């Protein structure tokens, strides 16, 4: 059995409708959190809507683009159908890039990043549970007792559950910071750095469905890029302290 045949066998044993339901629930809950947290932006209703639209468009494009360059099983699937497999890594990066470019062009200096932290991680957490139902993003073959059969007769690492547990820990941390108004202007980038590092490690447990370059998997390179962006933005914003009244001394895009 070829890797592509095994991939289709595993996906065929999943429950696509449950995955779609998870995606809808994730979008509703995550979107509601982003909309709620964006109320603090010093923008008009129309200005707020434009930023949200730009982020959504950038994220949707970013989720799909990496598959066209992934190679391996993912590359073969992408060649067969334009409806390529999606990755949240690209969605996070392109969503950030899209709004950064938009704000630069419109000379909008308001810091909007915090509003996406809770919503993004909620979408990721719920969506990963959907991946478990559909059997996508499955783990590598393992001899450990905790391995699960996803439909191809092989015991595989349930890496979807492992990632969901990691995302839950990140979600609790982000919520704790949000409730205490800590790390203002940096919460999203803490998520970038933390999730990028976590995904880099988890890819060692995941089935290699894309090509590797210099011993590092394709999606691991994207995870490292996400982590690097997060760390750079944290460094860049490290001087963006708040005054005793809680008002940022300096607002950065």
How would you portray this structure in words?
This protein has 253 residues and is mainly alpha-helical. It has one domain (3-236). Helices cover 60% and strands 3% of the residues. It contains 9 helices and 4 strands; from the N terminus they run ααααααββααββα. It has helices spanning 3-12, 16-37, 45-64, 72-80, 88-105, 117-134, 159-179, 187-202, 218-236, and strands at residues 148-149, 155-156, 212-213, 216-217. The strands form 2 sheets. Strands 1-2 form a two-stranded antiparallel ribbon. A two-stranded antiparallel ribbon has the order 3-4. A hairpin with a 5-residue loop joins β1 and β2 (155-156). α2 (16-37) packs antiparallel against α6 (117-134). The longest helix is centred in the first third of the chain and has 22 residues, at 16-37. The protein is globular, with a radius of gyration of 19 Å. The termini are far apart. Residues 241-253 have low confidence and may be disordered.
SSE blueprint:
Layout: H1 3-12, H2 16-37, H3 45-64, H4 72-80, H5 88-105, H6 117-134, E1 148-149, E2 155-156, H7 159-179, H8 187-202, E3 212-213, E4 216-217, H9 218-236
Antiparallel strand pairs: 1-2, 3-4
Helix pairs in contact: 2-6, 3-5, 5-9, 6-7, 7-8, 8-9
In oligomeric terms, what are we looking at? single chain
Number of helices: 9
Please provide the ordered H/E string of secondary-structure elements.
Answer: HHHHHHEEHHEEH
Q: Tell me the β content.
A: under 5%
| Quantity of strands, as a count | 4
The first-to-last residue Cα distance is 50 Å
Sheet with the most strands, sense and barrel status: 2 strands, antiparallel
Instruction: Categorize the overall geometry.
Output: globular
Q: Poorly predicted ranges (pLDDT <50, ≥5 residues)?
A: 241-253
| Mean pLDDT metric | 90
What would you report as the Rg, rounded to the nearest angstrom?
19 Å
Helix content: 55-70%
What count of structural domains? 1
* Strand order in the sheet with the most strands: 1-2
What structural class results from the helix and strand content? Answer: mainly alpha
């Amino acid at each position: 059995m070829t890797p592509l045949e095994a991939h289709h066998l595993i996906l065929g044993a999943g429950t696509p409708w449950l995955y779609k339901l998870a995606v809808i629930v994730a979008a509703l809950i995550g979107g509601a959190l982003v909309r709620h947290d964006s109320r603090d932006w010093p923008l008009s209703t129309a200005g707020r809507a434009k930023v949200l639209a730009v982020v959504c468009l950038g994220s949707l494009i970013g989720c799909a683009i990496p598959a066209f360059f992934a190679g391996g099983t993912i590359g073969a699937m992408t060649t067969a159908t334009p409806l390529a497999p999606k990755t949240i890594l690209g969605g996070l990066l392109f969503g950030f890039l899209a709004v950064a470019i938009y704000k630069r062009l419109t000379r909008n200096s308001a810091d909007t990043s915090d509003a996406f932290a809770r919503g993004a991680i909620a979408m990721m957490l719920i969506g990963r549970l959907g991946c478990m139902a559909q059997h996508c993003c499955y783990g590598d073959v393992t001899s450990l007792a905790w391995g699960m059969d996803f439909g191809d007769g092989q015991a595989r690492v349930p890496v979807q559950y492992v990632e969901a547990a990691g995302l839950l820990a990140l979600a609790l941390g982000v919520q704790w910071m949000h409730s205490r108004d800590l790390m203002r202007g940096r919460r999203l980038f803490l998520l970038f750095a933390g999730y990028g590092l976590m995904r880099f490690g988890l890819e060692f447990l995941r089935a290699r469905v894309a090509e590797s370059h210099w011993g590092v998997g394709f999606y691991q390179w994207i995870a490292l890029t996400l982590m690097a962006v997060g760390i750079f933005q944290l460094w860049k914003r490290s001087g963006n302290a708040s005054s005793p009244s809680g008002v940022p001394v300096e607002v950065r895009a």
